[in-house]
Design brief:
The complex is a heterotrimer of chains A (about 290), B (about 240) and C (about 230). Chain A has about 290 residues and is of the alpha/beta class. Helices cover about 45% and strands about 20% of the residues of chain A. Chain C has about 230 residues and is mainly alpha-helical. The chains are: A alpha/beta (about 290), B alpha/beta (about 240), C mainly alpha (about 230).
């Protein structure tokens, strides 16, 4: 009988060998992409990344966190490129020298969802701010992501536009500190209103029987409020700030993402499932090709 | 003339500032069986712990087989001495594994002599039994077999058959007797049982309140003790 | 949707050879297994040492270990992230968002448990045992090994506790691993992902698999305890 100590050492050695065996193959280059949970959960990245990986001999490690955390990762140099939707934070990121430049990628829109019986009567509002004002007045339950994500940032801007500072202690406003999926589920359970990007809502609609779109219409064309526009930007991280940033590969990624071909793939995303695209291409090259 | 196995000079042991043992001088001869006799609390067990070098003396010096022992003692020296405690602790293994434990420590293989030990102490049937489920008598016999398996030069026994069933006590004492007859192992038996001391010992050291008050040949001691306190103890008085 | 049929979904998942599931299971084992082995190699001797040795500041060491046993795992994750971040002191290692970082975090979480429980199980041994073992001629390391062998049940329990603390830990694993598909996704973080995306059935199935694996490993660990068989006639 092998002594327990020796057994453990053998096991450790085996595991080390297995873990290390992953190294040393014909190395694809690794690009670390920090993005938001909404881009991951919508299934977009799963759909388009394989094309980049195969044509550029790369592997994209996707770290999906809230926009706030993604930007933090970029500042710490733990990601090579960011794909987020928080315009003010993105601009600050570049202005402070953490990112090289911001490029338009795509946009979709936000919608206000809530219980079908609409206790605060927001259906038909022409702006989201107006709807929020009604919710505040009726003190109907509202769920906020509360996580410094792009969605949360937009939500805060809308409250500000409505001139309202929602009071946590009043009880109708809940700040969850969680992702879009969890927030939608919370709203579904609690019959609350919430702000969601259309893509995530559409992707999870089947699991959310108690929520419907109340402000925003059935597609972006029907969305009455331009403030609900949700643009995404891609930013390569500044290699001069930290060692080991894959600057070359990051730029290849940006070029690929904004290329007309990829943009057209994005335009087709979700159409067969939802009858409308989840994201609308908006890069400069694309706009130039489709004036 | 071989050097005595032990030579104690001005040895003392203190606990918490209190002197519990003081031995001006004591020789323990090679191959003899010495009984350390005395009432409970006299310091007998303390003396034993000095003899197996598990504790250093607070004062004085102990010479082992002619050479003073430095502190801490070398491992080889410690390994020549084994001890059977009053309440032996069994390892959570079989009887056989317990008996051969000392051999494994010394990286020695068990041999025929060790199986014979089991037979002499009637442990053959129990060889595979888990040692932590034994009766008091069985455990004591295992402890003795364990101590003897390594063929020590010195065997120390602390109250070897207090609270034992008569059968076990018979086997244990029988073993001590046969070792005494061979004269190859020095034995020190700590006991408060006068009759046992009489049965087993060549010489007797009488210990009272931390001091040796008398050392004598067993026959003479039990017939005619020099110290009146020894006499009192032998009469069954002086329990303290 | 929530369904009571999760065992079937789980079986289907495994059977369909879903390309995603087996790597996740394998990685879970590798990361937690490695962390457990390192915790044992580090923690058991240290626990034994603290139990047996007397040194100045020992009480502080014990207090530290007890505190470590109650460390919130996500705080450990944050600390490890700050250490391994490129803007942190050990950024050059490049371990962040790789399984190595997860092993580090899980080891930090498990070690105090292994140390603390090993320590207490040796402390609760018969004090006479140590004397006995030495009287039979054990040197220092033999003495420690004997004590460890005698407290085997407690030491294995320490391993079980360490294992339990990390196999389903998710906060630190997310922070330092990033839940990257194919690279650092383990069962616990995969469950969080599926839950977040509303796939409760799938999440439950994964949870069931995680539980089964945990049960299996614990059963194996119990064998190490070498429980004394009941001797006939006694």
């Amino acid at each position: 009988m092998i002594s327990p100590t020796r057994r453990a050492l053998l096991l450790a050695g085996l595991m080390l060998a297995v873990l290390l065996s992953g190294c040393g193959q014909a190395e694809p280059r690794v690009l670390r992409l920090a993005t938001t949970t909404s881009t991951q959960d919508s299934g977009l990245l799963e759909a388009i990344l394989p094309d980049f990986e195969s044509t550029h001999n790369a592997r994209v490690d996707v770290v999906a966190v809230g926009s706030g955390q993604a930007i933090e990762l970029g500042q710490n140099g733990d990601a090579d490129v960011l794909l987020v939707h928080s315009r003010s934070k993105e601009d600050a990121f570049v202005a402070d020298g953490y990112g090289l430049a911001r490029s338009d990628v795509m946009y979709n829109d936000f919608v206000l969802v809530g219980p079908p019986d609409d206790p605060a009567g927001i259906a038909g509002s022409s702006t989201a701010a107006e709807a929020l004002a009604r919710i505040a007045q009726a003190q109907s339950p509202f769920a906020s992501r509360g996580d410094e994500s792009g969605t949360h940032t937009k939500e805060k801007a809308l409250w500000q536009a409505a001139g309202i500072d929602p009071d946590l202690s009043a009880g109708w406003y809940s700040s969850l500190g969680q992702g879009m999926g969890e927030t939608l589920q919370f709203a579904n359970e609690q019959r609350a209103y919430t702000l969601s990007d259309r893509a995530t809502y559409l992707a999870q609609r089947d699991n959310l029987p108690n929520l419907v779109i109340l402000v925003g219409g059935n597609s972006i064309n029907e969305n009455p409020d331009p403030a609900l526009l949700n643009p995404y930007g891609v930013i390569p991280v500044n290699p001069e700030r930290h060692e080991g940033i894959q600057a070359g590969l990051a730029q290849e990624f940006v070029d690929w993402l904004t290329s007309v071909q990829t943009q057209e793939t994005i335009a087709a995303s979700g159409v067969d499932r939802f009858g409308q695209p989840l994201f609308y291409p908006d890069s400069e090259p694309y706009r130039a090709a489709h004036p | 003339m071989t050097a005595p196995t032990y030579e104690l000079s001005s040895v003392a042991r203190d606990y918490d500032g209190r002197r519990v043992l003081e031995v001006a001088g004591l020789s323990i001869l090679e191959g003899e069986t010495l009984a350390i006799l005395g009432p409970n609390g006299a310091g007998k067990s303390t003396l034993l712990r000095l003899l197996n070098f598990l504790e250093p003396p607070s004062a004085g010096q102990i010479a082992y087989r002619g050479h003073p022992v430095r502190i801490p003692p070398p491992l080889a020296l410690r390994r020549e001495i084994t001890t059977v405690f009053q309440h032996p602790v069994m390892l959570h293994r079989s009887v056989w594994d317990n008996v051969t434990y000392g051999l494994r420590l010394r990286r020695t293989q068990p041999a025929g002599v060790h199986t014979q030990l089991l037979r002499q102490l009637d442990l053959e049937k129990l060889a595979r039994a888990p040692a932590d489920r034994l009766s008091g008598g069985e455990a004591q016999r295992v402890a003795l077999a364990r101590a003897l398996a390594v063929q020590p030069k010195v065997l120390l026994l602390d109250e070897p058959s207090a609270n034992l069933d008569p059968y076990s006590m018979g086997l244990v004492e029988g073993m001590i007797q046969s070792l005494r007859a061979e004269r190859r192992t020095t034995q020190v038996v700590v006991t408060h049982n006068v009759f046992q001391a009489r049965r087993l010992a060549d010489r007797v050291a009488m210990l009272l309140r931390g001091r040796i008050i008398e050392v004598a040949e067993a026959d003479r001691f039990f017939e005619q003790p020099s110290d009146p306190r020894s006499a009192a103890f032998l009469r069954g008085e002086l329990v303290f | 949707m929530l369904s009571g049929a999760w065992p079937f979904e789980a079986a289907l998942l495994l059977g369909s050879g879903s390309g995603e599931l087996w790597p996740v299971i394998a990685l879970t084992f590798e990361v937690t297994g490695m962390a457990l082995v390192i915790s044992a190699l580090l923690g058991i001797p240290v626990g034994a040492l603290i139990a047996l040795a007397r040194f100045p500041g020992r009480r502080w060491a014990v207090a530290l270990i007890y505190t470590g046993m109650g460390l919130p795992p996500v705080v450990v994750g944050l600390a490890v992230y700050l250490l391994l971040s490129r803007s942190g002191p050990l950024g050059d290692l490049g371990w962040l968002f790789t399984p190595a970082a997860m092993v580090v975090a899980q080891t930090v979480i498990a070690v105090p448990l292994v140390v603390g429980l090993t320590m207490t199980s040796i402390e609760s041994l018969d004090p006479q045992l140590r004397l006995q073992v030495r009287a039979l001629g054990a040197d220092r390391s033999q003495e420690i090994r004997a004590l460890l062998a005698e407290s085997r049940q407690g030491v294995v329990a320490a391993m079980v506790a360490g294992f339990g603390s990390i196999i389903s830990e998710v906060g630190a694993a997310m922070l330092v691993g990033g839940n990257i598909q194919g690279q650092t996704r383990i069962l616990s973080t995969a469950i969080v992902l599926e839950t977040r995306q509303g796939e409760f059935g799938l999440a439950l199935a994964l949870g069931g698999i995680l539980l089964s694996l945990t049960f299996l490993v614990n059963a194996l660990l119990m064998r190490l305890q070498n429980r004394t068989p009941w001797w006939p006639g006694r």
